[in-house]
Amino acid sequence: QVQLVESGGGSVQAGGSLRLSCVASGDTVSRYFMGWFRQAPGQEREGVALIYGGGDIIDCDSSAKGRFTISRDNTKNTMWLQMNSLKPEDTAMYYCAADPKYWRGCDIRNYRYQGQGTQVTVSS
After folding, report:
1. Taking Cα atoms as reference points, which of 46, 40, 85, 79 lies closest to residue 65?
2. Percent over 70 (pLDDT), the chain
3. R_g of the chain computed on alpha carbons
4. Taking a C-beta distance cutoff of 8 angstroms, is the pair 47, 34 a contact?
5. Percent of the chain's residues with pLDDT above 90
6. Residues 114 and 39 sit within 8 Å (Cβ to Cβ)
7. At 77, is the secondary structure helix, strand, or coil?
8. Other C-beta atoms within 10 Å of 87: how many?
9. Which of 37, 75, 89, 107 has the highest count of CB atoms within 10 angstroms of its CB?
C-alpha cells in the first residue's frame, strides 16, 4: 500500500510561484507512473501533468504548459510541481497520484493511489 502526501500549497497573488511536493511511502515508486491533478470548486478533477518513472513528461492541461513543471527524484520517492506565473484560475485543490502501471493517462480515476490534496489559492 502506497501513501502519498502533498505539501507546499498556500495563498499567493497572481504572478507568484509555488512548489508542490508529493512524498510517497510504503513502496519504492521509481517505476510508478505519477501525476498531478487539480480540482477547482464546482469542477471535475482534471489532469495537470504526468511523469514516467524515467522522467518523460506528458502535459494534460494546455493552460499550465510553460508555467508549470513536473519533476521527480526517485531516490527520494518524491515528485514536485513547480508553478510559476500563477493565475486566479489556477485556484484549486491539487492532488498527486501514482500507479504501478506503465501508463494511466490524464484521468485520476485510473490511478490506484491518490493523496489527500493541498490547497492552492491565487488572488488577483
Report:
1. 85
2. 100
3. 13
4. no
5. 95
6. no
7. coil
8. 14
9. 37
Dihedrals φ, ψ of 90, to 5°?
-85, -5
d(CA 77, CA 102): 17
Candidates 71, 70, 69, 78; CA nearest to 30 is 78
Query: What sign results for the dihedral spanned by CA atoms 97, 102, 107, 112?
Result: negative
Chain segment 80-95, per-residue pLDDT in tens: 999 999 999 999 999 9
Mean pLDDT for the stretch of residues 18-40: 96
Distances from the Cα of 51 to the Cαs of 6, 35, 112, in angstroms? 16, 6, 15
Pairing of strands 92-99, 113-114: antiparallel
